[in-house]
Fold:
Amino acid sequence: MEENIRLELSDWRFNAGLLGFYNVLNHAGDHVEIDDNYIKFNVDVLEKFEEKYFNYLIDTYEGITHWDRFNKYFDYLRETKIDKFSKFTEKDINKLNEIIRELKVYFKRPNYSKVYEFIDNGIDISELQKNLDPIKIKKGETIEDVKNGVNTQYTILEKIQEYIYSAEGKKYLFAKTLIYNIINQNWEGLAFLNRNTKQNDIYVDYKETFVDKTIEYLKEDKEKFKLHCFITDLPIKNKASSYDMGFLIDTGFDTNRKTSHIWNFNNDIFICDLARLIYSCIPCGMFFSTSDAGIFVNANQKMEDLIKVNNNIKQSIKRSLKENEKNRNLYVYKALVEAMDKENLSAIAYELSDVQVVRKENGKYRFNILSKEIIEIFQQSNNQLDSLIKVGYKEGKLYNYIYPITIERILNGTNMFTLIHKLLVNKLTTSDGITNFFSVNHIKVLNKININFLKGVGALDTNGDRNKLIEDANRNGWYLGEEYSNNDNKGKVKGISYRLLNALKTRNSESFLHNLLNSYMYVGKQIPKGLVEVLEDEEKLGVIGYAFVTGLVSSALNEKSSKNGIKGEI
Structure:
């Protein structure tokens, strides 16, 4: 049996699994040697690995499970119990009933009921959930009339909380939740995620499927083995003793069912038991803010870098979730920006030509490459990006957050012109189907981010202060709008804005300048010198033009402030 195992960094999937494997062992206090592009560990660390695996996941994700939400509600109930529910309102009754109905549904689910036999804490959860009943206020009754019922349900909920948060309750119920919210985002079809499994104990199932087989494999004498693992290069006895990567969601494929992915239809992709164990740890290496939003940065130059960068992201997301529990999917983006703003990721980018970012969104993987230029754009725009986190617009029933849209555009190398155009049109339009939750000042912020982007990708060459270009054009637009207001022609400003936006949409600098000249001639003013620069190239037309229209629209909508005439300066 090999006493010490060395595993080197490879592709992003294996690296995410290797990071997850390290996280599990480090969380358990086991010794793992980190050196350059590999980790080294003693096989003894695999003892009770199944418990270490779930302990890491539970301790990491406890705060974003529905059990944690229920626990916080139980704490609220305990506080209101002190004053005998005297402050209870009909709204509180509705919330209590909502929790009761949810718990009844959860405890009836087969994936939970299968582990009740392993939770031996003297509490009959099946009986408790039967006695959970929503509070009904009959016609003519008051809150005071149903307080006995509230007390009864409170007593039952107290026992349920005790059951969930007992050592065994947490061990199995939290693990079950994470299986179907975190683990199944990365792999499927094996152990407890195999629909045909007959093992109800999820810990035993994982141990028998991954851990025991890995230990058995490491004990074998491999001298006469002929094949090699595709990822670790460790010897494999034969095809029957190997595995494919079909259990990896969206990135693996079943070689028995589809051979078209393989050169000449002849499969040479085999992985060993140890590699399969490492791949099972991907959910411990990719960090999730919700079951629909996960991220992994493949900083694969050094193992130490991989750990530091992803730990920064993990801590950033956890910190953000504590500050605000709403819109949790946004914090994957925020954590990425914060990680890029730290010195270690910037240094990595300069050692390499790029850094790979892998995100899991709505069940699909998304891949981006972080070049040095993109990282610099994020670093320069960090403060402006922060101001966009909570703003957006609603079209029909769909709410669009500006922050992730902006991040996505930077990652994909797309400028902000069409986004700025859409937001300005939304501001000018009064439609029942559109609701705006942003100010014109947020569009001004986007202009500043956009000029950082254009400069970063080499599409715009500006001398001096880039922000001054935005400020001057923005201020000129606002003052033109005020000139119309002073002449009792405020209503014309929206029309001018639409005509200028149409010219910008078609990148027609002559049409844009023609409309500007007519507008300034109407109020008897000379066109500012800086606006003539729109004739130089399309990028300057977009930057100066949209900044000017932003100021014009702020005047039309009376969004003012004491600084530069713009409301809500950020």
